[in-house]
Amino acid sequence: MSISLVEVAGANLRTDYDSDKLNTDFMGRLGMRKRYLPARLAISRSLAMSAPISLSADELEPGKVIKGDTLFGTGTALSVWLALIVERAGEPDVDIKRLVTLVGAHWRRGLAKLDDEWEQAGADLGQFIRRLVDVAELPSAGGRLPTSGGAGASGATFSSGEIKVPLGEIGEDVATKEKVFWSLNGKGGAPHTAIMGGSGSGKTVMAAAMLRSIREQAQVPLLAFDFKGDLAGFTGTKGQTALGEAFEAQVIEPPRMPIPLDVLALSQKDQFGIDEAAMRFRESFSRLKGSKLGSIQRNYVHEAASRALSSEEPCELRHIRDRLHEVYQEHEAKEDGAVSSMEELCRFPLFEPKFSPADFFQKSWIIKLPPNVPEDSRTIVVNLLLDALDQYLNGLVDAETSRDGARGLRILCMVDEAHQILGTKLPSLSRLIRMSRSKGGVVMLVSQSPDDFSGEDDEFLDNMGLVAAFATNAKPGAAARVLGKGANLTNLQTGQCFVRFDKTTKKIRAW
C-alpha cells in the first residue's frame, strides 16, 4: 500500500455539496458541535454495509474540506480508520488520491443511509439511536467507556474567564476614536492571531503589547521563536516591561545551549506510536535544505528513527544518527546527504532531555534562532518543537470552560518573523492552528506580508480569530483575501493597521 499516516493526516477530505449540507443538518439533529462527528458516524455506517460502494461523483459539486487528522484523529485511531477503509475497498494498492475518493463515497452513502433511518425513526432521537445500536449489534445497556491518557492527560489551565485584549499599545478605532478590544478566548471564537507588516511597521510592537496584556490577565506560559534575537528584551515604544521579564521566560540560544526537552518523547509506546513518531521525525528531517530525501532515503531515515525510538529512552538525535549509519551499512548503501545532514545536526547538542513535554510546556521559553545559527539547525529546532507541542497539547483532554463560555488557556505559541517557516506546510503548525483551541492553545504568527501565507492551505487564515496588517507592498489580491475588499495596505500611516475579527474589518491605531 503506497500511502502513509502522515499523508492521510494532511489530506483534504470532502464529500459532495448536498451531502455536506446533510452533514450540517445532522449536527443539529444530534446536538453535535463539530463537523467531523456526523461524518465519522456516516462513514462508519457505510463501512458496515456489505454492498460495493459507488465511486462516481465527478459530476457532483464538492463540499467543504475536513483535514484527515481532524476527521479520523491521530495515532492508533487514524491507523484503524485507514485499515478499515482499505480493507473494505479490497484493492491491492491504495494511494492517497484513491483514499480521498473512497472516503468521500463512504461519507456520501453513509449520510444517505442515516437520513433514511432518521425518517424511519420518525425524527425521534431515542428511536434513531436504538436503530444504530441494533445495526452495530451492541448491547442495549453497557458499562462506561474506558478513558485514556492517565494522570498527566488533564494538563494545567492558566485562566478562568474571558480575556479581552487591547489591540496594541493604543488600540484605538481611527474612525470613532474608541478603544478596540478582542475577545481572545470567548465562546465560539478562535484564539489565534496573524499580524503582518513590512520592516519597521510596528507589527512586533502590537504583538508584544497583546502578549503583555494576556499575561497580566492570566499566568499562561509562552513558547516564542525569535528569528531576530531581540524579542526577550523588547520593551515597545513606551518602555514597558521587557517581554522576557513579563513572562519570566528562560532564553535559550541553540546550539550554544541545548533546549532542555525530551523532544522525541513518545505519546504512545506501542508499535503504532513508534511508527507514527518515526514518520513525524522523517517528515521534519526531510524539510532540511541539505537532506533532499528520495524514496529510498526516506525509508532509511524512517527505519533508523524507528529503531532508535524502540531501543532508547530517552531517545536523542545522536541515537537516530547512529542507527542511520547502521541502516546504510546493512543495505551496503553509500552515505549521502541524509547522513551528512544528520551528522551536522549532531555536531552540537540541540536538545537535552531534562524535562518531559508536560513539564517543559508549563514554563515560558524564548528560543533565539538569529541568522548566524545554521539554517538546518533552525529548521529542525522549530519543526521538532512544534511537533512536540502538537503531540502534547492535542493529546490532552479539552480545557475547562467558564460559565460565560470562555475556554481556559494552557499555552501561547508565538513565532516572530514567521515567514521563515510559512509556506513549508508544517503539519504540526497546521494542526495546532486547526485543533488546539479546544485544548487551550493559542498561536500568534508575526510575519511581513499576506503573501507569506499563500503557500499554506486555503483555510489556514480562516482559522485565525484576529488578523492584523500594517503597511506593506503585498499584492492587492492577497490583502483582499485576508481583509476584504477596500483594504489598501500601501497608504496606512505610522502606527495604523487594518484588523479583522468577528467578521468585520476596522482601521485602528495600534501604537
Automatic annotation (TrEMBL):
CDD domains: TrwB_TraG_TraD_VirD4. It comes from the Bacteria. SUPFAM superfamilies: P-loop containing nucleoside triphosphate hydrolases. GO terms for molecular function: ATP binding. This is ATP-binding protein. Residues 191-381 form the Helicase HerA central domain. It comes from Lacimonas salitolerans. InterPro entries: HerA_central, P-loop_NTPase, T4SS_component. It holds the Pfam family DUF87. Keywords: ATP-binding, Nucleotide-binding.
